[in-house]
Each structure stands twice: as structure tokens, then as C-alpha cells.
Design goal:
The chain has 1235 residues and is α+β, with helices and mostly antiparallel strands. Helices cover 32% and strands 24% of the residues. β18, α10 and β19 form a beta-alpha-beta unit. Its EC number is 2.7.7.19. It catalyses: RNA(n) + ATP = RNA(n)-3'-adenine ribonucleotide + diphosphate. GO terms for molecular function: ATP binding; poly(A) RNA polymerase activity.
């Protein structure tokens, strides 16, 4: 996942500064050359200014290091500061900059300057007042004091005036009139005598109130606002917790006090009773967990009062839905309960008795605060530790609804700290107790776990339950890349004081356990509360700062989704249509569900209700498809009719072999979705039901007369997810998804069952769009031979600590005609004891710290195996160094196979399995999961296969195909086709909707394709496959690698790369023109009848390739030559790898419009190749273009770097006119072949 700061841009951080300025107009941003200039107006006409690079700063923080020329000056000659005061503030600013480091924020600099200006103002005003009485000027008001002395009227007045955390509309001021006594008035209406003739002298102010509660009183020496010391025995008003006990509370506006809410314990909670709206978490829920550091110990050294006030302000700015606090004492509770934001936002609070009794017992505890909803039940759960009753810990357990039928328990915990004896054993026992007691529920464990990722005993407990309980930080971050330290003495001043070991810890966590009924996605997870605050903002000479707590807070935004298991959904096998006449006569007579169910064999029923969202795609459909990849298609045979006496059901029985295959598949499905096992408690018997009976008499009568007239078989190439939208007896099931068996889809051809209408198949045959059976068999044979030869060396006997896979992807995997067989060889390290390692394992492990050496070793082993097994069949063989090592093989029958080699190792430091290219887990398998995601998006693979075949044929015909030439790759065209299928394919009512998919329906998809993408705003928008209910995510802030390219067609697999990254503006415009050209064609011909549509489709495929176009005036011609075909292939491969950078340079640096050929032309002897690039400049102008020739020279120099170049491998170039190029091509020359 992205860095935790990636959601806030540099400009956002700049705009947030307005909140600490007196006016939004006091911050100006304006262009200044290559930079942006920022001017910030402070008090007294003081101005801060700096510059920043908007491109370079996109994902950076607003810190002193990331801005240029930060300076302070007077914005005008109206500055009221004296020379001495200006000198003082200048020195203060210079000292701030000198002491700053790379993490010092610009905001903290501004705040410090403002605070210092305020102090200067106070000092100046004090010196000018000559009528102050002894009552007003006391030693307690000495602003230079670094102690916690009682602060005077002016100090408190200015604090309220300038503190952004205080709502001045809620402040009342009490002053004494010498004749009529005490009067109150709103703070905003108060006028000082030195500023207004009817004003009040400051020495007559007696108290301040906020929200009706006294926060400062001169007579009683009360100062709750700044936390000044009070004399012993001073009365404390404003103590709302005095009448509270352990329990659940809410604020009653009518009573203006906190009142207790009745609640039940978790043990008494009957979860069968539906949750109400007021007890349900929001679907998008904002959490905050924070250990706030109690005031029981080291209060003065950690400056508790200052910290707690700022911490409350942080909570106010965030207003999370759920707040879990640890280390809470009654003094903080009193401050919290008086917060207006807490009262007005309808927060419920859960308080432990250890918080209420903290003063007497020197204890602290936890609290849970929830906004606009309350727990349906809660319990303070003791977690006893054997042999130590004195140190029993308690956690708050609160249960909430997620839907009327689904609940989740939130546990706010604070485990034992290292100050305790036998702390590791205590923490381990506590965790075991929690996991064992809560194993039947959805739950989240939130809080301070008091151990880090290198506390091995505790981590062993978490690892034991890792399949059930997920650490959310690890869900989205690599620990070695983002360790997530929430307790960090090296950077946190409070932690440095409280820590005895000075060790960094990821102490605070969110752990999640979900059952089958719940899923979630993490929108945001980050550490916050890392800023420091001034310890004494009123002291001129005190530059000390402190953090808000010794722990940083952990902020989480997540989206919950409840998922129901319903009888409206099933996974089933459907027999092919040609067998239905053998089945339906029985069903029509005896099966009351004949109109609702097609003939089927249930694999899973009931199944999940699918709602076409990302969660369904990732956690159900993709996982299901990956399982089906491991099972090859098979033939199912029906040979008799049988019955289940217990439920009076008659069914068609599979033969023994077929039954075993279906049972094996169903067992793996249950293993994949164990939550469905409760619905299959009885032994699974695969069957095709043909009759239900409500009485024994009817059952026996039918049973005796039913005989299977003839046995039959049908191929099982697919399984189907069936759904119906209404839970009644009339709504029939429809096909929601058709999912293929096997890693390679059956190739489309005219004999394919479960495919499309016969007439559409005839069209594909006529247009020669189907791959020949011989071509496919050659590819299949090569793949199987390579798989077998790799198995000889990489197998369970030779390797115990590594596994290997050899998988197809690309056009071969998807079952359509392509030039190459793209494959990936994966070597995957697994956890293994050293005593189990083989010598081969040990050899590989020795190389794992040298990724290049390991890659080379594996490639050499594969090369040896290939040459030993298939040497006589190979025409050319070469190795290519790229992101993944590639082995490219051309066989004598012209079959080409490319093998990508990918190695995944376990990084020992983090014990987290990662891939060398930093992708996660299964997502890293090159190309494989990309294809599988397309298949689950398109609903019906056979329709998608035909559709993609047609579009690819058109793109190749008109010269718009080929990533290396600046156009779109086959995968990009596949994403576009999948998008159209997902968005426009009509609901599949039955199997006949697929097998009878007509040429009219196909034409409609084609028409939608060209209409959608011809009008798509490619220059501004990105295209990505989204389920209908999924809210699209913005790509703003993504790295340049993701946004590179003039057409952004985003891969559905992490890390969501742009598959159109090779496109430039010129090729994008050519693609758009090609799409528009088809639309114009369709407006000029009839498309009414089936024959019209056939003809229209035919004309689309017959459109010619217009190279060069009418706009092109000159041609750059590249000629490549060598002694033999193998060398030429190597030479052309090098050319293709460098071509994209040259095209981009021509457009970006030279501002040239380009048209590229989408193929290399070979002479028939295969030792010379030609490639042409068209430009819209005439040859003379192009030859005079210095920038163009600089780019061309840089491009040609790249050929000198080719590691395998020989003397015979040559390249030449010339620039000629289009007329000469065309004339030359009309001359008789040796035959040319395009590749």
C-alpha cells in the first residue's frame, strides 16, 4: 500500500495553514518562474515567504527541508513593532531555523512565531499599564516563569483570544463592579478600558467560564485552562465525573449533564435479536486508538496539562466514529466530559471503574467513545493470569451491529507493560484467553499491546492464530519498509522519559477476525499525533516542546461489508443444451422447481449473495477461479436413475468415475469456503434432481416407473454461479457467472460447446478468426514438454524448502489465437526446518542474498533442462535480461515460447514472504492473475473470447496493435473488451443465452465498443475495470510510473500499473481516429437485418492500414542486418526495447507528431529488417531540426551497448520523403515478410 501520508498533497497541507491564520486571505500562492511562491501574513504586519517546486513536492510533507528560501520580513512600513521588538523576533526566527531538522514542519514554525509575537504584545502592554493594582500584578503572573505558577488575568484573556481550540462564543467573563457586585457578560462583547472609554479594567475580572463551567477563578486560584497549580485544599468546581460510575453514558442536552444509559452484558445478549440502527457501526467507519499517557507518574516532566488540552483539540478536529483510549485517569475524564464537541456530536462513552477510581488507586483504564451509535451490549471482561490475581487486566468488550443480523465485538485493551514481573508469560496468557473466548465472533482487538514485532513469544501466539486473526497494519504494509512504530523513544520526547529500554515498538495495533458473513477493506491506516507542542507558550525564553503522549495515535478508516449466505445463490454444474431433451421430460412431469431451476448438479447451495462489488471479485470469484485452475475439465456420465428415500427425491445418478471427480471438486470448494460447511453436514452426494414428492405414495409410484432410457455424457468445461433476485417461488435462477475449469481456456472454434450461436461461429470461420487445431496442438505440446522437463529437476524429491510452478498466461491461457506462448516459471521459497532441507535447497538458500546470482543460476538450470530434452526441436534460443529474466525459444515449426522467470524468497528480517519486485503474495505471479481477473469480470468467457478475437483482429489490421510501437498491447485491448462485456452484456437468463448468443447481440457489443472508446476522454480520464457498485478511486497522487502514457488503461491487479504506458499523444490520436473511423463506417451502411450486421462486421475487419497517413511528409527508415536469422532476431529485439524512449523523446523534446509502423518487415532471407517512422515535417525541415538529430543520435548510441552484438549486426538510417518511400516500395524487390 501507499505511504500513510499519500492521501494529503503538498497543496492540501499549505491550505491547512489557513486554519491557524487570522484570515484565509493571509496566505497567497502564486507562480514564480519554475517555482510557486508562498506568502503568509502573520500578526503585526510580519510576513513569512518561501518557494517550492510543485512537481517535485507532490507527495512530500510541508517541512522546512522541502521548501526553498524560507525568510521573514516586514510586509509594510506599518509594522507596529519597535526596533528592539523586531530584532527580538528576528533572532527568535533565526534560532528556530538553526534548531530545525528535516522533519520540522512549516506549520510549527508559523505557530511558534505567532506565539512569540503574542508574548511580545503581552510584555509591551504590561509595561505601558501604570494603574495596575497589587491585586492584579502578582508574582504568579510572571510570564517568564518556567514553573506551573498561577497565571493572571491578561495571560488567560490572551489565551482565550488567540487559542484556536477554544470556541469564544461559549466563553463568559465575570467582572466586579465596585458598586453593584459581580456581573457576567459574553467574552466577545467585553471591552478593555485601554481600548474603549466604557471598557472594564482587567484587574476587575474575577473568573472565566466555558460552556457554563468555571475554567479560571482569581479568588479561588482555579486554572483548568492552562493547568496552573492550585493551593492544597482549593475547591474544584467543574468535576462532572464525581457522580459517575463504571458504565455507559451519553450527554443529555435538556439536563446539561451526562446520564447513564441502560445496557446488558455480552452474556445476556441474544444475537438472534436484530440490531437497531442506533446500535450499528457505519459501513464506512473511522477509528482512532491512543494511549494518552496517564498523569499518575512524572506529571511535571511530561507536562500532562499542556498535553491533554492539545490532545483533546486533536480529537475535536478528527471526530472519529470510534475512539479507543488507554491510560485514562479521572482528571482527563473531567476535561473530556466538558468538551463541547463531545456533547454536541452525540457521543456515547464507556468508562471503566479503574478510570473513576484512578486518584484513589493510582490506576488508569480504558474508554470507548462512539459517535451517534451505542453498543447493543458491553462487558468489562477480566483476563485472569494464572498465579497472579493481583494483576488481572480488564478489557472493554462492546458489541455493535453491522447489519440487523450480523454483529462485531470491539475490544479496547491495554496489555501488561514491561514494568511487570514475568510480563511475557502474562501477555501470552492474556492473548490466548482472548482468542479462545472470542473464537465464535467477528471481533476487533484495539489498543496498546505493549510489545513489538520482535517480542518472539507474543508474536508466536499471533502467528499461531494468523489464519484467523489479521493484523491490519501487516495487511497493507511491509514491516521492514514501514515498521509502524507507535512507541519511539528516538523521536518521541515523552517516550524517551517513560521508556526504560529506549526500544522502538509497534505497540499499538488493530487485530481483526471475521467470519463468513463479514468482509472489510482498509481505506486508510496511519500513525498520527506525531507533532510536538510548546511546553510554555507564554515564556519568551522557553523553546522546549513535548509530544502529546508517549504513544502516537493509530488512525484507521475501513469499510465493512456484510455478506449473507442465501438459498438464492448456488454453484452448480450444468449439462450442455444438447442433453436437455433427455432430462427435461422427467423434470417437467415430476419436478415442482422445473420453472425455477435449470437441469443442474449442485456443488454449493446455499451460496453467497453476490452484489457485483470489489469484495466479491477479490475474495470469492477470484479465489474460486484460481481453485478451478487446478482442475482440468472432464466428462460427466449419467447411467441410471436413483432416489433419496429420506426426502422423497428422485435423481439422475453419475457413474462412479464422474461421481468421484465431482466429489473431489466439491471437497476443495468446501475447503476454500469453510463457512459453507455448516450447510453440508450430511454426506455430499452429487445428483441431478428430476423429481420431488410430498407423499410417500406418490414417491413410490414414480420411483417404480422411472427408468433411464439411455445413458449419456456431457463435457464439464465450466461451473456456474446461479442466482435469483427475489426470494419467492416464481423467480427463476439466472447465470451470474460462468467460470472455466483448467488453467488454459478451451480455444474458441466452431466445434466448441457452451459457446456461441452457430451463425456467429460461421462468421468467425469465414473471416479466418479461429486458430487452426494444428497450431493450437503445437503450442499445447510445447507447453507440456517444457512442464515435464522442468518437473524432472524441480520436484518434491529434490526440493523441500521451495516449490515451483510453470504456468501459461496471455493469449494462450485465454484460449485465443496469438503468435507466442507466454509462460512464467515461479520458484517460491516456503518455511522449512533446516533438518528437512535437501542439498538442492541449501544451494539455493546460499544464493538467496544475491538475487542476480540466484536468477542466473535458475535460468542456467532451466536452459540445461531445455537443451537436454528439446535441443533438436529448437531453431533459436536466447536469454533476455529485463524486470524478470526471460528465456525466448523459437522452434523449428515456428512456435515461439517465452518463459519469464520469477523467484519469490522469504526475507529473514521481517519473516514476511515477499517477491523481489515488491509485489504481494499471489498478486506477484507475472501475468496470471491479470488474466484471471478479466475472466471473472466478463460473466461469460466464451463471449469474451470471441469479442476480444474480433477487436484484436481489427486493431492488427489497421496498424494500431503493439506496445513496443507506441500502440496498445493485447492486454490493453483485453481490458477494454472486458470493460464493455461487464457494462453492456445483457443478463444471462439461461445457458441458451450463451450457446445461442447471436450475431445481432455480438454486433451490439462491437458497436458499444467503438462508440464508448471513440468518445472517451483519454487525455484526462483513466479507464479501469470497476464493478457496478464500486466507487472509483482517484489516481491523483500516484507515481509517474502509474500515470505515464497518453492513454491510461489501468490493470485490475496490484500495483495497478498503466497498461497503456507506451502510448504517446501521437499514437493516442491515431487510435482515437481509428475508433472514430469505424463509427463513421457504421453510419454509412445498413445495420438493420442479421445479414446487414454480418456485412458490417466484415467491413470493419477489412478496413485498410493507412501508413503513412496523409499528414505524414517524411519517413525515418531504419535498416537492420546480420549474418543469420538468430542474430537478426536478437538485433530487432534490442531495437524494440529502445524504441519507446526514442518515440517519447521525439514528441516531448522535439514536439514532433509521429506515426509508427506496427511491425518490422523482414526480407525473405531473414537477414535484413526494415522499420519506418513517419513525421509531419518535410525531410528538409526534419534534417535541420537539431533536437531531432540529438534524440536520434542518443537512440543510435544505445545499439553500441547491446551485450551480444557482433560485427555483422549493423544498423543504418536515412530520412526520405513519403513520395520516395512509396516509389521505392513499388519497385520489384525481394519478398518482404511482416512480423
Amino acid at each position: 500500500m501507499a505511504d500513510s501520508n499519500s492521501t494529503t498533497t503538498f497543496i492540501d497541507q499549505l491550505n491547512s495553514l489557513r486554519s491557524i491564520l487570522r484570515s484565509d486571505d493571509h496566505l497567497h500562492i502564486q507562480p514564480s518562474g519554475d517555482y510557486e511562491q508562498v506568502r503568509i501574513k502573520l500578526d503585526h504586519d510580519i510576513q513569512l515567504g518561501f518557494f517550492f517546486d510543485s512537481l517535485d513536492s507532490l507527495n512530500k510533507s510541508l517541512t522546512v527541508n522541502n521548501v526553498t528560501d524560507l525568510r521573514m520580513n516586514k510586509s509594510s512600513n506599518k509594522c507596529p513593532l519597535s526596533n528592539a521588538e523586531w530584532t527580538t523576533i528576528r533572532k527568535y526566527f533565526d534560532e528556530l531555523i538553526r534548531k530545525s531538522n528535516k522533519s520540522t514542519s512549516v506549520e510549527s514554525i508559523i505557530q511558534s512565531i505567532q506565539d512569540h509575537l503574542l508574548k511580545l504584545t503581552i510584555t509591551s502592554q504590561k509595561s505601558k499599564q501604570t494603574d495596575k493594582t497589587l491585586d492584579d500584578v502578582t508574582p504568579a503572573e510572571d510570564m517568564s516563569s518556567t514553573g506551573n505558577k498561577f497565571r493572571g488575568t491578561i495571560s488567560i484573556f490572551n489565551r482565550i483570544l488567540h487559542d484556536k481550540t477554544i470556541d469564544r462564543s461559549q466563553v463568559m467573563l465575570g467582572y466586579e463592579d465596585r458598586f453593584t457586585g459581580i456581573h457576567e457578560m459574553p467574552f466577545n462583547e467585553f471591552k478593555r478600558v485601554e481600548n474603549h472609554e466604557t471598557g472594564v479594567p482587567m484587574h476587575r475580572v474575577r473568573y472565566f467560564k466555558i460552556n457554563g463551567n468555571i475554567v479560571w477563578d482569581r479568588t479561588k486560584k482555579i486554572d483548568l485552562l492552562t493547568g496552573s497549580d492550585q493551593p492544597n485544599g482549593a475547591p474544584i468546581e467543574n468535576n462532572p465525573s464525581s457522580n459517575l460510575a463504571q458504565g455507559l453514558y451519553r450527554f443529555d442536552p435538556s439536563l446539561q449533564q451526562w446520564v447513564e444509559c441502560p445496557h446488558i452484558s455480552l452474556a445476556s445478549d441474544d444475537t438472534k435479536i436484530p440490531s437497531t440502527k442506533e446500535t450499528c457501526l457505519p459501513e464506512r467507519c473511522h477509528f482512532l486508538s491512543w494511549n494518552i499517557l496517564s498523569d499518575n507518574y512524572q506529571t511535571e516532566s511530561v507536562h500532562t496539562c499542556q498535553r491533554h488540552h492539545t490532545l483533546l483539540y486533536t480529537l475535536k478536529t478528527l471526530l472519529p466514529d470510534v475512539i479507543c483510549l488507554q491510560d485514562v485517569t479521572v482528571s482527563f475524564l473531567n476535561l473530556l466530559l466538558n468538551e463541547l464537541w463531545l456533547q454536541e456530536n452525540n457521543y456515547y462513552i464507556v468508562i471503566m471503574k479503574s478510570v473513576i477510581n484512578s486518584e484513589q488507586n493510582k490506576s488508569c483504564g480504558q474508554m470507548i467513545l462512539t459517535k451517534n451509535f451505542r453498543p447493543r451490549s458491553l462487558t468489562m471482561c477480566p483476563l485472569h493470569v494464572s498465579g497472579d490475581a493481583e494483576t488481572t487486566k480488564e478489557i472493554i468488550m462492546a458489541r455493535f451491529g453491522l447489519s440487523p443480523k450480523i454483529t462485531i465485538d470491539l475490544a479496547n485493551l491495554h496489555l501488561f507493560s514491561d514494568h511487570c514481573d514475568n510480563v511475557e508469560e502474562k501477555r501470552c496468557q492474556t492473548l490466548e484467553n482472548i482468542f479462545n473466548k472470542m473464537k465464535t465472533n467477528n471481533y476487533m482487538l484495539i489498543g496498546d499491546f505493549n510489545f513489538g514485532d520482535y517480542n518472539l513469544k507474543e508474536q508466536d501466539i499471533l502467528e499461531k492464530y494468523q489464519d484467523e486473526v489479521h493484523d491490519l497494519w501487516k495487511d497493507i504494509y511491509h514491516i521492514d519498509q514501514n515498521p509502524g512504530y507507535t512507541f519511539d523513544p528516538s523521536s518521541n520526547l515523552c517516550a524517551r522519559i517513560t521508556s526504560t529500554s529506549q526500544i522502538k515498538l509497534r505497540s499499538d495495533r488493530y487485530l481483526m477476525r471475521t467470519l463468513d458473513t463479514l468482509s472489510y477493506s482498509i481505506e486508510h491506516l496511519a500513525i498520527i499525533g506525531t507533532e510536538t507542542i510548546p511546553i510554555n507558550p507564554f515564556d519568551d525564553d522557553d523553546f522546549q516542546r513535548i509530544h502529546q503522549s508517549d504513544h502516537y495515535a493509530l488512525q484507521l478508516v475501513m469499510n465493512f461489508r456484510t455478506r449473507s449466505i442465501s438459498h438464492r445463490s448456488a454453484v452448480a454444474i450444468l449439462p450442455t443444451l444438447n442433453t436437455w431433451p433427455l432430462i427435461d421430460p422427467y423434470r417437467q412431469q415430476y419436478d415442482p422447481s422445473f420453472d425455477r431451476w435449470p437441469p443442474h448438479i449442485n456443488l454449493l447451495w446455499p451460496f453467497f449473495d453476490l452484489t457485483d462489488c470489489e469484495e466479491d471479485q477479490e475474495n470469492i470469484l477470484l479465489q474460486l477461479r484460481l481453485l478451478l485452475c487446478q482442475y482440468e475439465s472432464f466428462s460427466a456420465g449419467i447411467d441410471q436413475i436413483d432416489s433419496f428415500i429420506e426426502n422423497k427425491t428422485i435423481y439422475m445418478k453419475l457413474n462412479q468415475q464422474s461421481e468421484n471427480q465431482v466429489k473431489q471438486l466439491q471437497a476443495q470448494l468446501i475447503k476454500l469456503f469453510p463457512q459453507l460447511s455448516g450447510n453440508h453436514k450430511n454426506r455430499y452426494n452429487p445428483s441431478m434432481t428430476i423429481g420431488y414428492f410430498d407423499t410417500d405414495e406418490k414417491f413410490k409410484q414414480a420411483k417404480s416407473s422411472l427408468i433411464l432410457n439411455e445413458s449419456f455424457q456431457f463435457p464439464v468445461h465450466y461451473i456456474y454461479i446461479l442466482q435469483r433476485s427475489l426470494d419467492n417461488d416464481t423467480e427463476p435462477f439466472h447465470i451470474a457467472y460462468q467460470l472455466p475449469l483448467g488453467s488454459v481456456l478451451p480455444p474458441i472454434n466452431s466445434k466448441q460447446l457452451h459457446s456461441v450461436d452457430e451463425k456467429l461461429q460461421q462468421f468467425f470461420q469465414t473471416m479466418n478468426l479461429y486458430e487452426s487445431e494444428q497450431s493450437y496442438q503445437r503450442k499445447q505440446e510445447k507447453f507440456e514438454k517444457l512442464s515435464s522437463c522442468f518437473e524432472q529437476i524441480f520436484n518434491n524429491d529434490t526440493l523441500h524448502c521451495f516449490t515451483h510452478s510453470f504456468l501459461p498466461y496471455g493469449s494462450f491461457r485465454i484460449g485465443i489465437n496469438g503468435q507466442d506462448v507466454d509462460t512464467v516459471f515461479i520458484l517460491n521459497e516456503i518455511k522449512c526446518d533446516n533438518n528437512q532441507a535437501t542439498s538442492f535447497d541449501e544451494a539455493l538458500r546460499e544464493l538467496k542474498h544475491d538475487p542476480t546470482g540466484l536468477n542466473d543460476h535458475i535460468v542456467d538450470l532451466l536452459e540445461t533442462q531445455i537443451n537436454g530434452t528439446m535441443k533438436n526441436e529448437i531453431l533459436h534460443y536466447r536469454k533476455i535480461q529485463a524486470l524478470f529474466p526471460i528465456i525466448s525459444i523459437v522452434f523449428h515449426d515456428q512456435t515461439k515460447v517465452e518463459i519469464f522467470v520469477q523467484i519469490k524468497i522469504i526475507k529473514e528480517q521481517s519473516n514476511v514472504q515477499t517477491c523481489q519486485d515488491d509485489f504481494d503474495g499471489e498478486e506477484s505471479i507475472h501475468g496470471v492473475h491479470d488474466i484471471e481477473r478479466l475472466l471473472i469480470y466478463v460473466y461469460s468467457p466464451p463471449i469474451f473470447q470471441h469479442f476480444l478475437t474480433f477487436i484484436r483482429a481489427w486493431a492488427q489490421q489497421v496498424g494500431l496493435y503493439g506496445q513496443v510501437y507506441g500502440y496498445l498491447s493485447g492486454y490493453s485491448w483485453a481490458i477494454l473488451c472486458a470493460y464493455i462485456c461487464h457494462k453492456f452484456l445483457a443478463p444471462i437468463k439461461s445457458l441458451s443465452s450463451i450457446e445461442q448468443f447471436s450475431i445481432e447481440e455480438f454486433f451490439s457489443l462491437v458497436q458499444q465498443f467503438f462508440s464508448t472508446f471513440a468518445h472517451f476522454n483519454w487525455s484526462a480520464d483513466a479507464l479501469r475495470l470497476y464493478p457496478k457498485s464500486y466507487k472509483q478511486k482517484t489516481l491523483v497522487g500516484r507515481s509517474l510510473a502509474h500515470n505515464r502514457g497518453s492513454m491510461r488503461i489501468i490493470s485490475p491487479s496490484a500495483p495497478f500499473n498503466n497498461t497503456g504506458r507506451s502510448t504517446i499523444n501521437s499514437t493516442r490520436d491515431l487510435i482515437s481516429e481509428g475508433l472514430e473511423r469505424v463509427l463513421q463506417l457504421l453510419t454509412t451502411i445498413n445495420t438493420i437485418t442479421s445479414e446487414d450486421k454480418w456485412n458490417a462486421l466484415k467491413q470493419i475487419l477489412e478496413l485498410s492500414h493507412e501508413f503513412p497517413s496523409e499528414k505524414v511528409k517524411s519517413i525515418l527508415r531504419l535498416t537492420l542486418s546480420s549474418e543469420n536469422g538468430q542474430e537478426l532476431d536478437e538485433w530487432i529485439g534490442w531495437t524494440k526495447s529502445r524504441l519507446g524512449h526514442f518515440l517519447n523523446d521525439c514528441e516531448e523534446e522535439c514536439h514532433l507528431s509521429i506515426q509508427t509502423q506496427n511491425s518490422i518487415e523482414y526480407r525473405s532471407n531473414n537477414i535484413e529488417g526494415f522499420y519506418a517512422i513517419g513525421f509531419q515535417l518535410d525531410p528538409q525541415s526534419l534534417n535541420r531540426n537539431r533536437k531531432f538529430f540529438d534524440c536520434l543520435k542518443k537512440f543510435l548510441n544505445q545499439f553500441n551497448l547491446c551485450p551480444n552484438r557482433t560485427d555483422s549486426m549493423k544498423i543504418s538510417q536515412d530520412v526520405i520523403s513519403v513520395h520516395d518511400w512509396k516509389l521505392e516500395r513499388t519497385q520489384p524487390k525481394p519478398q518482404r515478410l511482416r512480423k
